[in-house]
């Protein structure tokens, strides 16, 4: 393929044809790739440059692989395999062809309540599995790490082949009903930790979604993911995050004081149920904040029966 010829080649990846770069990070690049042996189909390969990493960062990479390897849930991106060369580390991941939630929010400014419910429900199911079954805190829940796995990619493939240009149409959630978005998957366990009863104390994660207790240097636990879920739900509904300032000191103060608002005009049209769930998640005191079970049991989660109706 023409596209493949523009791609870098990595030692030990001979079996794979790299098709396009789909993600970029500090130490890693993520590619869509196809199996030349036609056994595994298309996958996402997360390539990490080990040679740029300090020992501590390599340890984190090791943790990411070990945690992801143990996870087995439909709303969590699955690790198919991992391997490495002297300089690079490779994670072979289940490909999510629908891309990031982040791009959908940017593209459509905000999501309908029904759509936001569909997404948060599935992310919350992933989080319940992590917290209650696996004793894992994700610590980096945000729209960039939430990926779409459309129910059917067949119509997209067909329409692509009839298009003249080589512009690729991303699957857009505005073109489909909530029940057609398909599966939503949580990715990127690069900051996650196994807690197993022992609260972790390392401050890390993305500032904008960081819980207040992270700045108070308290030991923290699964509650940080619940705060991030509140930020996520707010952002999907409003199209902008609850706490944001270019000045990080100001943003930290906003977060620590729980200073956000359901501002007009955007929030005027959003239901009281949605606002209630957001405020239960964005509760400063982690002891009072919604747990994952309380979040899943919240009436707003169950208000609209349409997106839980079986499609067959
Ligand atoms: P980082 O630790 O650099 O943030 P991620 O694991 O979050 O790495 O991957 C970076 C980006 O690559 C994601 O935000 C997403 O756009 C893309 N990506 C990662 N894994 C997949 C996947 N399995 N399917 C599709 N895209 C992916
Ligand atoms: Mg990421």
UniProtKB/TrEMBL annotation:
**Where on this protein does the Glycyl lysine isopeptide (Lys-Gly) (interchain with G-Cter in SUMO2) crosslink form?**
142
One of the entry's Gene Ontology molecular-function terms is: protein serine/threonine kinase activity
Catalytic positions are 140 (proton acceptor)
Q: Where is the Protein kinase domain?
A: 16-301
Which residues are recorded as binding ATP? 46, 144-145, 188
Sequence segments annotated as region (Disordered):
150-169
Give the family this protein belongs to, as stated in its UniProt record: Belongs to the protein kinase superfamily.
What name appears for this protein in its UniProt entry?
Calcium/calmodulin-dependent protein kinase
UniProt source species: Penicillium frequentans
Q: Give the classification, highest ranks.
A: Eukaryota, Fungi, Dikarya, Ascomycota, Pezizomycotina
